[in-house]
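Q: Structure for this?
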Amino acid sequence: NAGVTQTPKFQVLKTGQSMTLQCAQDMNHEYMSWYRQDPGMGLRLIHYSVGAGITDQGEVPNGYNVSRSTTEDFPLRLLSAAPSQTSVYFCASNKGFGANVLTFGAGSRLTVL
Amino acid sequence: GIQVEQSPPDLILQEGANSTLRCNFSDSVNNLQWFHQNPWGQLINLFYIPSGTKQNGRLSATTVATERYSLLYISSSQTTDSGVYFCAGLFGNEKLTFGTGTRLTIIP
């Protein structure tokens, strides 16, 4: 049981480049989400999904796109990277927000030059 | 908007000491969780505690929902307890809001 798997772990981009952060979970969780972590600001929600085909915006969605074609996968796309998107990104999943806790991936460190 | 405030922001303790971390939230909470981020960046859930008290070994947590706060207690601290502790709450929707964390450093 791998849990939540994120790739890549590290990435360096130039301003204007695009990339996709991959997230996959094998726990049959309905809820998946993406957070970014910046120094002194905790974790901020970017986008989330409550099931396949359903996505919604979080606190800081600008500059990011998501899709949820399957229950297992929830990729995060940066269409035109900016230095302000330099951050550590975490994907998380859970069964739903009853009494279910959030399981995080290991994180992806992105640097935009 | 919803506010989740944690205190203290930083805490340095000698190994063996006890500590109390606090989380205040600005609205009624449906789902309150505590997380530990270790020095390697991994985030691990410690407690799901929307109300009441739970214990897990040297760690325990109490949430008083009516007064809008939660406490995380760490007893007999070990160096492996070092890291950042986050609380996060769900306030009537699907969006979990995190506090800015308490950085705990345990000195041998």
